[in-house]
Amino acid sequence: MKVSRVGLWSIWLYGVVFILLSVYFIQSLPFRDEILFDSGDVANPKITIFSAPTPYSGSAGKRQTLAIRSWLASSPHLTVVLFTQDPLAASFASASGSRVLIDSSVDFTFLGTPFFHSMVERSRAFETDISVFVNSETVLLSGFISTLYHAYKLDNDWLLVASLRNVSYFPFHFDDSGRHWLREDGNPIKLQELQMMLEQNWEWSDCDDRMLMAWNSRNAALFNGVIPPFLFGKGIHNHWIINEVVSSEFRFVFDASWTISCLYLNDHGDQSNHSEDISSFSNIGSWENVGNAHLGASYGSLLFKEIDYSSLLKLVNCDGKYLFVDTKEDTTYPFRDQKLSVWSRRILHSKTKKKNVACVNNIKTKERMSNCSFGNQLKYLVPLDSPFSLESLLLATADENQTIVLAVAGYSYKDMLMSWVCRLRRLHVRNFLICALDKETYEFSVLQGLPVFYDPSAPSNISFNDCHFGTTCFQRVTKVKSRMVLKILKLGYNVLFSDVDVYWFSNPLPTLSSFGPAILLAQSDEYRAGPVNLPRRLNSGFYFARSDVSTIAAMEKVVKHAANSSLSEQPSFYDTLCGVGGSYRIGDDRCVEPETNLTVQFLDRNLFPNGAYLELWQKKNVKEACAKHGCLILHNNWISGRMKKLERQVSSGLWEYDNGKRMCCKDT
Question: Is the pTM of this model over 0.85?
């Protein structure tokens, strides 16, 4: 009996010690309120945070590293997806293990800023229960996981928003394990103590678009419509989304700012942006913000019924019990697991009696007043002028060989321009530049994040549907092309000129660059067997010109000849460089201009076919037919009319732009 009592006392003491040790270790764990939340009655939902970091350099890189480590520390079941092209971000992800993924398949501007609508579309490809979008410098402290777990229990589709706080000083970091917060001196600090210290100094950031948004990833759409091509992190887009979701009534929208503690460091001394390595560009961030504001005005101001953000129900935690609070009505609504039935802002259950008054009053006393509605942000829009000169754009876009790809386009060809751009992006060709023939094309291209400049000398009154080959409009427009090529050649850059109706199967620059100086490479418009340099068969819609003395002198002659001609620039190319009637022809595929000694080399039609050669466009499978001949490009010419040209390219499958989603098509 004595032995039995000793044994029982030993078991009891060991049990007490085990419990005390368990409590001690749990108390020392970060985010213990979230770890202890799961009671086993609901499976852990899979959470994915989507964001787009700015370049990982300087203090911005340190802030982003700290923020992402706080995300990973919040739950072991959480994955992070970073949309970026920055190699330093890839290095960080590699060091962080399999929970941090890099995705560069979304659409980016030429400065490297990703498009928000493309990010949202791409996020649907990831298997996740809850999608979270947040700025890459947002530090998550407490309440994040537990709030999402509670929201996941709701019967309906929902959108959760949370405003950030900002602090001017944050002397804390993680230990090497990424689990425990440390002070500036390296001593550990508990999360609750850290948060209490910050609560004395942080400020709400309602007018800032850097808020947190999360939604359950069911099949239901966010709202009834398409997201405009907003730039991520450049203002407006989050507020625009909230307005659209509330207006569409597809989802229940609520404010979780009181249960999720998230903040960012308000570092006024470091205004980093995606262009910090391009010293010629100033105020890039402001310019991109202006673009987003114009998009918001264009796509939202007439379509949404603007809401009062303070009218959103607020999710609060009163003594461990989650409630929805309507601060305007001084009313609370119970959060009933799996039974709460809500739709938009209309509560289908009867109101509970006014209770938890102290908790509601506490929320009201701390509630901030916001005078920064979406509509107010759109009242004063500055003109959408670009800060870029042609010289600065050339500096930013040219490749290591000082070569750029130039396209000239008017508004009637904007969709074909975007298909051409998307194809170049897919081929990883980044050294392209757009010359806009009108202000509409210029503004459209700016909002699409393209490197674009406007030529004020371009002809006005360009016909939308009647500017194809042979028309007076076509003749006027084509002469802009050679003038711009000459200007860029004189600035010291090689130019591959390509019409936007030229489809690229692969990058032709390596082949074209293999030819030496004083050689202009041009596509032949001849489609029959035999010589390709016959009179008037030089196609000025695709050619490669080097920035050398002979080429510049010859192009000056072409531009002068075209200026005095009533025809398009194409006959001027041939008559000047190959002689009237082909008097400067050499063999079956060359010409030599005698005064400048420039050689014109007509390109192999199997590699660079025109629109009539071998009737490739009429083949049942155009891609397969072109692959058989080794085509590098295929010109969509030898067809009259913009709509016919458009229909032929779309029906052939050689189309890269999804006009409905306003983004580049993705591989399935």
Answer: no
